[in-house]
Each structure stands twice: as structure tokens, then as C-alpha cells.
Amino acid sequence: xxxxxxxxxxxxxxxxxxxxxxxxxxxxxxxxxxxxxxxxxxxxxxxxxxxxxxxxxxxxxxxxxxxxxxxxxxxxxxxxxxxxxxxxxxxxxxxxxxxxxxxxxxxxxxxxxxxxxxxxxxxxxxxxxxxxxxxxxxxxxxxxxxxxxxxxxxxxxxxxxxxxxxxxxxxxxxxxxxxxxxxxxxxxxxxxxxxxxxxxxxxxxxxxxxxxxxxxxxxxxxxxxxxxxxxxx
Length: 233
Description:
Helices cover about 35% and strands about 30% of the residues. With about 230 residues, it is α+β, with helices and mostly antiparallel strands.
């Protein structure tokens, strides 16, 4: 795998950097699929709980995970003035609904830039932006991320570091929020809070033997036909 590739896996956006062998790439996709599926089945009551379930699921299938980092941004934005005649600007971020600082994806991109190289962060933002105008199959797969609860999305980037597959991930959620069809591309039109949980994981190559990879592939095989959707970025 020499070129960067992107896909949706169980409703999450996954970007694979070039350099993976075919088997490493399959192991990454299957790991993201199983971890995402297990975390979704756990039905955690909030964003922190879901991120913790995801981290635990990765740890249970041979990934060494880091602690989660939480970022919370108050989006005091609106498309109409309040009683004083001014737009909401009480928190860290404020402006009219058309302001870039009121677009969740803009803020998510800034967080990703602290985790990744600027090039990879830009590729993720561009890939997620393209989903806004994607066809029905892709949009339906993407909507899995917000099938319950407030608007949210899960982003993964897989890279090789010293020959070891690494995953960086970001789970984000907007509260309050009801319209998942416009998240995270559209600017918010009322005050809300964007919460992000970021983490990373390294593949334990002692665990990922040929036998283990085969067992993992067999476990997720029934899910793959509908849960893995290739993207053209």
C-alpha cells in the first residue's frame, strides 16, 4: 500500500497512510471495525463513555493504548442576535453562524493538527468535507456515527512508525445538537459545546501473529460487506 487511502469503517472515517503491507492494512481495518462495533454495542451514555469503550476495545485486541485527552470548546455562535442585540460571544469561541470558528470541523482540524503532521490533518479534514456531497450509500454509512444521541463522528488515522502500525483517533460530539445531517460541516446556529476525545494506539506485533490475524478477519467477515465503504479522496 503505497498511496494514502480512505474509507468509512462502521461509520468512522479511516485514513491509512502509505507504506503498509497488505496484511498490515487488513489488520488495521479489521481492528477499527471490531473496536468500533464493540464500542457501539456497549451503548455508553455519553461521549466520554463511548471513547473509553473504544479505547478498551482496541486494548482487548492487541493494541497498546494511551490515555485519552479531552478538549472542550464552547461555541457561542448564532444566526440571530440575543435580547441585547448582539450575537452570542460569551465563551472561548464566538461569532455569527457563518464564521469559520463556528464550524465544528474547523476546530476538529485544529485538534488533529496537534496529533498528526499538518499534511495528514489536512487530508482528514478534506476527506470528511467531501462526505457532505457524497452519494446516498456513503452518507448512509457516515450517518452510523450519529445513529443515537447528539451529532458525533469518529476519525482514525493509521500510520507506520518504525515499522509499527499506529492509530490516532478523535471522537467528537456536539451538545446540544439534533441535526446530525449537517454535522460537522455546517456552522452551529445556537450556543453549544464541542467535546473531543483523542487517543493513540500501537499494534502489538507479538499479538498479531498469522493465526491471530486470520481469527480477527473471520470474526469481522460478516460485518465487512456493509460496514467498510471505500472513499475516493
